[in-house]
Amino acid sequence: METYADTGLVRFEYKHFAFIGSESTRAAEASECALAQGKFWQYHDTIFANQRGENQGAFRDVVLENFAAALGLDTGEFNRCLDDRDYQNVVQAGVAEAKTREISSTPTIFINGERLTNAPSFSQIQPMIEAAIANSQ
After folding, report:
1. Beta strands 109-111 and 11-14: pairing type?
2. What is the pLDDT of residues 79-123, one digit of tens each?
3. Among positive and negative, which fits the CA dihedral 107, 112, 115, 116?
4. What is the pLDDT of residues 24-67, one digit of tens each?
5. For the chain, what is the largest distance between any 2 Cα atoms, rounded to a whole number of angstroms?
6. Which end of the chain is more exposed for a tag (fewer CB within 10 A), N or C?
């Protein structure tokens, strides 16, 4: 399952690149479990607000489960999803794609297949998006 928004003119995709260790993999899997309940972005924002460093315990399963409870998710379903690793393959596929595309950092942004470097701001990429829309009509 890909996380994306599609307006008909612009498609935004978010793919996992869990490369910081086992906790980043579990956090990515947990965000997919939250997506299944319609709260991907809220969960995503919670994860990023609570980063503490590589494998420092910030994303132990109990912590990920507490994030889900705080967001009002069905914790029984969320915990089952996390325990059963329902989205392990999705996360692994994102990592494999990143390696194939020679991505080594986050965020990495592409517009119409062109890789942008140095994590540009929205104001920097907005003209590129508008030009891509204009060219597609």
Report:
1. unpaired
2. 999 999 999 999 999 999 999 989 888 788 888 888 887 777 888
3. negative
4. 899 999 999 999 999 999 999 999 899 877 777 789 999 999 99
5. 49
6. C
